Amino acid sequence: MTPVKQGSIRLFRLWGIEVFLHWSWFLVAIYSISTRVPKYQSPLWGVLEYLTLFLIVLMHEFGHVTACRRVGGQSDEIVLWPLGGVAYVAPPSRPGATLWSIAAGPLVNVALLPVLIGLAYLDLRAGWRQQFPDLHTFIRTVAIMNVGLLFFNLLPVYPLDGGQILRALLWFPFGKARSLMIATVVGFLGGAGLVGLAVAQSSVWIGIMAFFLLSYCWRSFQQARALLKVERLPRRPEFACPDCRSSPPTGNYWRCKQCAQPFDPFASGAVCPQCGAVHEVTFCPDCGCARALRSWDKSILDA
Fold first, then answer.
1. Concatenated DSSP letters for 62-73?
2. Most buried residue, 69, 100, 120, 166, by CB count within 10 Å?
3. Where are the domains of the chain?
4. Residues forming beta bridges with residue 21, ordered by sequence position
5. Selection from 212, 223, 206, 208 nearest residue 167 by Cα
């Protein structure tokens, strides 16, 4: 889910990554902390519990960003909001790169499992439940939260991590557009299931979650339809995108940066036939990368 960045507060910058916090987070934090405080003898533990959840979500999003950068993608922003966090990642338009960028988030939660299990074991052996009941409750709750976040994110419901992982896996046999189409259809089914659960449990939060899931699925479904149209266009087999290796479509699907007239850079040598402007780079309609026209020559790429 992609929350609007408008209304977000910049918290800090770390390793070139800007971290923002949506204003609504504070409202939910007050409510959540007020429900957790009664479970502890000291109210400070309720605050610490919510801040730890905040930290786990942040680490999860940093996992996405780090993996995306490792595969050559771009990512430099994270937005935290009441329903979790969003790392704005733009991996190379390849299924493997996308799969790793998405899977790295849940892997952070997996890496935290032995740490939290170790603390729980130490708690049991040391008898902290009797000596330090608040610490015992805190360790137990944080472990449960981490497992809950892991399993929830791995649900194969787009655009949760599980749904995006499903899409990346389907990308290998079905291609970019069809994989997105299948993943969004599964997402619609999952969103409908959440609507039913929200009604059954009279849960406002589950209802809000279902709304954002379905809204994002609808936008992605429209994007998949547009990608399918692009995929079906006649292609120039003698050229290929240096990044995604897709052959460019035949026709006037590019616009001149100077006169805004449509033209085909592969037919005119990247020179606009209307005004004579020379275009140093040509954009790929499939993955969005911009490369010099000479680098599209398939004979050079295959050499």
1. HHHHHHHHHTT-
2. 166
3. 1-154, 156-232, 254-301
4. 9, 80
5. 223
Rounded CA-CA distance 214/207 in Å is: 11
Q: What is the DSSP letter of 297?
A: B
Would you call 190 helix, strand, or coil by DSSP? helix
Q: How far apart are CA 300 and CA 303, in angstroms?
A: 5
Structure tokens at 68: 């995306």
Instruction: For residue range 77-136, list pLDDT tens digits in order.
Output: 999 887 778 888 989 888 999 999 999 999 999 999 999 999 999 988 888 888 899 999
- Give the integer Cα–Cα distance in Å for 55 and 144: 15
Q: Rounded to two decimals, what is the model's pTM?
A: 0.83
Residue 98: closest CA among 51, 159, 53: 159
Tens-place pLDDT, residues 28-52:
788 888 888 888 889 899 899 989 9
SS3 state of residue 40: coil
**Which residues lie across from 291 on neighbouring strands?**
282
Q: 123 and 129 in contact (C-beta within 8 Å)?
A: yes
The SS3 call for residue 77 is: strand
Distance between CA atoms of residues 83 and 25, nearest Å = 9
pLDDT digits (tens, 9 = 90+) for 172-214: 999 899 999 999 999 999 999 999 999 999 888 888 888 988 9
> What does DSSP say about strands 17-22 and 74-81: parallel, antiparallel, or unpaired?
parallel
